[in-house]
Design a protein that fits this description.
Sulfotransferase, 4-stranded parallel sheet, 13 helices, Rossmann fold, 287 residues, globular, alpha/beta, EC 2.8.2.-, sulfotransferase activity, binds 3'-phosphate-adenosine-5'-phosphate sulfate, P-loop_NTPase, 7% strand, transferase
Amino acid sequence: MWGGFGFRPPTLRTGHITNRELQEFQARPDDTLIATFPKAGTSWAIEMVDVVRRGGDISGCLQIPSMMRAPFLELNPPPPFPSGIDILQNQPSPRLIKTHLPFHLLPPSFVDQNCKMVYVARNAKDTAVSYFHFHRMNKKLPEPGDWNQFFDSFLTGQVAWGSWFDHVTGWWKEKNNHRILYLFFEDIKENPAREIAKLSNFLSKKLDREAVDRIIEHTSFKNMKQNPMTNFSLLPANIFDQSVSPFMRKGEVGDWKNMFTVAQNERFEKEYRQLMSDRGPSFRMEL
Ligand SMILES: Nc1ncnc2c1ncn2[C@@H]1O[C@H](COP(=O)(O)OS(=O)(=O)O)[C@@H](OP(=O)(O)O)[C@H]1O
């Protein structure tokens, strides 16, 4: 699989990465980290950040799959496939790195090296629905059960990468202590040009009007869904079975209304009020 991307797995490694190896990961000062809770718009942000860093030139992005342009830090497949760390250690600078880690589990070198970090948050209801469909198609994740069961698992933080509530508030609390740009999926959807301007400023990359238009076009849902470099169609069906649910599924704000029952919504609202502090980020559930 990896050979097809022009990548040769390093030969030295044979086993899984340990938590200690992850914590000892050496970030470089010019790394850019993209951090999210799963299904918050990671792939969208990767594409935007990558083209912004390339000054609006999309040609490089059209040749290499997104998962190779922004390796997944904590990816830990069984041998002989390379881990995220294996891939990253062999990548030239400046690297783009994807993670779903909560802030408190991030390898300390990202803070020590004063790396730029882009965090994208998405409202919990749409995230839960997107995550449910992702579990159905991702053959490396546990079976989600029915929507009712998954809803319960999500709300109680019993899903991979834990509690959505802890994740979005954990990164929010740190955003002024480090070089963190905290963005929202809903804001990008509402006004991509405004959010690209924030990225251009944060990444110190000047973009003219044409470049911004090019980025909006290249990163539109329609284009990313058709583009094999961004739609994960290069992964075989025993990893992502897109006949069950496509990776680029709907890309909307408010799709939760098609899944949540009235009772689920009431329970969600009640627990949301208890779990989200007043000082945390505030989310829009519809536009
Ligand atoms: N360009 C663009 N515009 C709008 N929406 C987009 C875009 N790219 C990805 N998406 C939607 O983001 C959801 C996938 O989230 P992630 O990329 O974070 O997934 S992952 O955690 O990295 O697996 C998933 O959301 P749902 O459609 O609601 O399931 C994708 O469709």
